Structures are given as C-alpha cells and as structure tokens.
Amino acid sequence: MTIGQNSTPAIQLSNDPARPRRWMLYGVEGVTGLASTMLVISIFFFTERSFGWSMRQNLMLAATQGVVYIAGSLLARFVSGKFGRRNSLLVLFVMIGAIAAIGIVRPTPKVVTALLVCYTMVISLTWPMLESLVATGLSARELSRVLGAYNLVWAGIGACAVAVNGTIIEHWPNGVFVIPTIAHACGLALLWLTPVGPAPGSAPDQQQDLRAEDALVEQRRLALWLSRIALPATYIVIFSLSAMLPSLPAIKRLPTSYATLVGSAWLVARWFTFWFLGATHWWHTKPRLLLWAAVLMLIAFMGIVLPATRNGPLATILGIMIGSQILLGMALGLIYSASLYFGMVLSDGSTEHGGYHEALIGLGQTMGPLAGAIAQTIWPGSAVAGIAAVSGLIALAILGATAAAWRAKRAM
C-alpha cells in the first residue's frame, strides 16, 4: 500500500470504537491549549501593559520558560512510565490549575514571574502524554488524519486565545489567570470522564501497514531529521516574535486589543496549513520541502518585525506584517506537522518521542529569546539588534538542515 491509499473503509471509520475516547481527548487538548496560550505565548502583552516591561525583560522571561519547558518535556517519559499517562495527567491538571489561580489573588511582577515559570514546567509534562494518548496504535495513514485533527484543535483554540487576549488584558486583567484556571478544571473533568480502554486503532492492521511501507522508512527518517533540526527554529521565531511584538514601535501605536488581533494572523495561517496537511498525504514523501519552509520562515520573520520598527504609514506597515505572518504560518505549520507526524509514525506514538518533540520546542523557546535579550543588553533599546540575533540563529538552523539533507542524499 502506498501513502495516500484509503486502507480503511468508510463504514469502519464511522463505527470506530475509539472515536468517542479520541474526541474526549481532543476536548482535553482544546481547553489545555486555551490556557497555555494565554499564559505562555501571549502573556507578554500582559507584562508589557501591566508591569511596563521592556523587550529585554520579556525576552528573558521567554528564555527562562524555555529552559524549564525542556526539562519538563524530557521528564514526561519517566513520570508517565512510573504513574501512567492518564493518572499523571489528572494530577498535573490539578497542579497547573492551582498555579494559574495564584495570579488571581497576587498579580505582582515577582509572583507572576514565579508562577509562569512553574506553570511552564508543569504544562510541558502534559503535552507529550496527550500526544501519545491520541497517537498510540494507529496505522501510518490513520495517524496522519488523527494528528491533523489534533493540530487543528490546539492551533485553532490558540489563535482565538491570542486574538482576544488583548481585550481581556485591557478590560479584565485578572481574566488572564481566571480563564486558564477554569480551563484546567474543565480539562481535569473531561479527562476523568474519558473512557479507559485499549489504545485506539488495531495493532495487526498497523503492523501490516508498516511492513507494506518499508520502502518509505528512509524518507521518513530523513524528514524526521530535517524537521527536528528546523523545529527549534520555528519556536525561536514564535517566542522571539511574541516577546518582541508588544515593544515594537508600530504595535505600540495600537490599543492592546487590536495589537493581539494583528499579532494572531500567523496562528490563523498555521491553522489553515494544519487543515490542508491533515487532509493530504503528498508531503509525506517530499522531505526536502522542509528546507524551503525554513527559508520562507526566515524571510517571513524579517518581514514582520523590520517594518514594525519604523514609523511610516501604519496601514502599510500592518499590511506588510499581516502578509508576512501568513507566509510564516504556512512555514511553521509544515515543519511542526512533519516533526510530530514522522516522530510518532516511527515510534508508534510513544511518550518518549513526544517528549523529544516538545523538548525541541523548549530549546527554540530558550535560544531565540536569550539571543535577543543578550543583544538588547549589549545594545540597549535596539530592536534591530535583537532581530539580527534571532535571524542569525534561524539562518544557522537552515544551514544545519541543508547539511543533513546533503549527507542523506550522499548516503542513499
């Protein structure tokens, strides 16, 4: 069987006994994505508005969150192996809900900084387990469809969360902590109600699919290497961009409610990319597309941040920024989808590989903001210095991916 063929009749899909369980897990993922987006990705608009933080301070917070995200992601395998994925998640949801609630009663800079670091550490443990629960025991084709839906859920919720977070920050600052607290309580309830049973899918069918697709193993390994080299670069972009945007001159000319709306365009574009990739399979056999996606990502990042450092006509600047964000979302969507799909299909949806995937996200979250913060320390107040430092890291990732592709081609 080649990728793209439908190996499961429609009537079997409609009677899939694992479907209710999977939809419950999508619900858990959705509310977790809502909360984590507000407290990890778009929290920098809150710190800039409520605490008056500079770009350097926001970059340092993002880098610190990245360090603990790596640690938590790599610990997920140990924790889930010792206590089980579902039991671990139940306890972790209680913990992150309680951490988020602290911000409701004491939203001071020191307390918020501490809770954000602790929150990021704990939330990073949950994602590899959720990914594994959704992905285990599926054939290669079914895994592509299921992970496509998985990506649509968290990416769609995240885009909405960023878009409205500015309005929440302006009119209900405590909502930044109230909503995540409620969301995690809902996630806890949903997970508790999720049926406990065998992993979705059929192991014999899966083994048959994998035997039939042995010829694709080398392509998958190459795609995994390329995506895993490029994945940290995507989060270098995401967290550097998130930390920089509130302090850029063009964005500061907007009310916070409009600023987060403008800044959510790349998340919307990424959602549509996830939808397209989840509905198709042609990209499974074209690993070198990831190189072009990485190049496009660098161009798009510079197209977003450089115009925003100038004081020209605001409508023109915002038009360029939004157009560049659309390109950025497309590039990010392809690289993320490839990393998660190829890691899971080669490991049968293991928590370990989910942890590697998330740890690489944390690596990017650390490297990009840290480079930007160092540049801001050397050249205080220079947004261009921070942009140059981040762009340099992305360029290095592109070179690394190019070298990996060249080596793989020579080895074939």
Question: What does it look like?
Answer:
By secondary structure, the protein is an all-alpha fold. The protein has a single domain (18-194, 205-411), classed as Growth Hormone, Chain: A (Up-down Bundle), CATH 1.20.1250.20. The protein has helices spanning 10-14, 19-41, 43-51, 55-83, 85-105, 109-135, 140-171, 175-193, 203-212, 217-244, 249-252, 256-262, 265-278, 289-308, 314-347, 351-378, 383-411. α7 (140-171) packs antiparallel against α15 (314-347) and α10 runs parallel beside α14. The longest helix is centred in the last third of the chain and has 34 residues, at 314-347.
Characteristics of this structure?
412 residues; mainly alpha; globular
List the helices and strands and how they pair.
Blueprint: H1 10-14, H2 19-41, H3 43-51, H4 55-83, H5 85-105, H6 109-135, H7 140-171, H8 175-193, H9 203-212, H10 217-244, H11 249-252, H12 256-262, H13 265-278, H14 289-308, H15 314-347, H16 351-378, H17 383-411
Helix pairs in contact: 2-6, 2-7, 2-8, 4-5, 4-6, 4-10, 4-16, 5-6, 5-8, 6-16, 7-12, 7-13, 7-15, 10-14, 10-15, 10-16, 10-17, 13-15, 14-15, 14-17, 16-17
Question: What proportion of the residues form beta strands (DSSP E)?
Answer: under 5%
Q: What is the 3D form?
A: globular
Helix content: over 70%
What structural class do helix, strand and pairing data support? Answer: mainly alpha
Query: Spans with pLDDT under 50 lasting ≥5 residues?
Result: 1-15, 199-212
Q: Count every helix, treating DSSP H or I runs of 4 or more residues as helices.
A: 17
Specify the CATH architecture. Answer: Up-down Bundle
> N-to-C terminal Cα separation, in Å?
23 Å
CATH class: Mainly Alpha
Q: Which fold does the CATH topology refer to?
A: Growth Hormone, Chain: A
Q: What is the typical, i.e. mean, pLDDT?
A: 86
- Note the main sheet: none
Number of domains: 1
Q: Please give the radius of gyration in angstroms.
A: 21 Å
String of helices and strands: HHHHHHHHHHHHHHHHH
Name of the CATH superfamily: MFS general substrate transporter like domains
* Strand runs, count: 0
